[in-house]
């Protein structure tokens, strides 16, 4: 199931985020630290220090929405970035949510077997 379709822009936040932050804290981080317009309709993707949780924040013209995903036993393949953000395509977002590396496109290891 594709939850996010026709998203104008997807920004991956390079740094780990304190996951006690919710909508207001993440929105403030987007505007103050990333210097991006939080009300643009873009999707902002954040990861925790353990790399097993993601939060996705977006504005849908009626209010903010916050989407949360936690992996049971694995870690997300989070790219190493030199800049504060990375722009993802819609396909790369789906790869990330599906457990793939957005750069190199390799799947997470489930039960000791590499799945492609």
TrEMBL record:
Lineage: Bacteria, Pseudomonadati, Pseudomonadota, Gammaproteobacteria, Alteromonadales
UniProt superkingdom: Bacteria
InterPro entries named among the record's database cross-references: Transposase_IS66_Orf2
Protein name: Transposase
PANTHER family xrefs: BLR8292 PROTEIN (PTHR36455:SF1), PTHR36455
Pfam families linked: TnpB_IS66
Organism from which the protein derives: Shewanella inventionis
